[in-house]
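Mods, move this if it's the wrong board.
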Amino acid sequence: MITLILQGFSRNSWNCKNLFFCSHVRSHNNHHTMQFLHLPEALTLGINKHFAWAQIQTAMLDLDQLRALTGNNQEKALCREWLQQKEEKKLQTLHYDKRHIEWLGGRICAKQAARHYLLAGGGQGNLGNMPGRAALHASNILVMSGASGRPFLAHSGLPEDPPLPHISISHSRRYGVAVAASSHCGIDIQAGSDSLIRVKDRFCSREEEAILGQDLKELQESDHLTLLWAAKEAVKKGAFLERMPGFLDLALTSIETQTMVAPVSLAPRLDEKRPTAKDGRVSLAPWMDEERPTASPDSFLFTLTYQDSLEEQQQNTGHSHHHFQVVVGLHQGYGIGLCVIPAQPGGDNA
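Not the wrong board. Structure tokens:
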């Protein structure tokens, strides 16, 4: 049995080393605690604003913590709670420690996001009500990979046979992250590094470099490139095109800055109604008993375009240009990008 325990976010924790909001999943049988992290508030608010039409849930995990748990003889217990037998067999073939932890962490994040999506009523399912709610365990959710390598969910003993969300998974250094959404989606997390400057010609054109320099004057070049990389990776993961676009096939055309000002708020009185996320959108951090800061870091809306090749234009009668919007943000030296793309008629979650 798994219990979810929310950890408070207060003014005192605003300036701590790890600014990601936390929640914990604890196993009563095996006494291990899994710490999940919510996306930064500014990024969450930007996602809710620009993708208000979609149902979205995310999950984030500290891979260093996961590595500590697996090194403390807890891997078998984790596998029992989070993986099916075929997934556990796949995990055991990954002998390189970094890949082993990334793969396990990515699956755990994807299942956590999918579970929250289904419990929130995503896909018009009825799992938000009993008895389906009680039967929805992470081990009932199977994460598979399509021919393209994109992950997708498969039914495996889920009650009510609900429509399953689309998913996307990413990891970089210390963190793993996943999104579950009602339409095609892509998420990417990228650790900032000066190495991106050395290879920028592979994914950033001179026109894009000029746009970044003009619209994001307050940020360093490495930050520009980290955000651009995360945005393009998110689109590559979410876009279902005739062929997988290359980095330079996707062109940044505009940037919109989202400054999230959060007025100082004291804990609401008992008779006040606390704000909650609705319609299955990304969950906001819970309100706390102390004052909150007066402002949150910015998030940005990147618009990317892709033009079909001449061969694709001859084969298709539709538009030759595709436009994608990605909400991106910087946090603790990482760039995070998330996009949700309207599904094509007749599409499935693979």
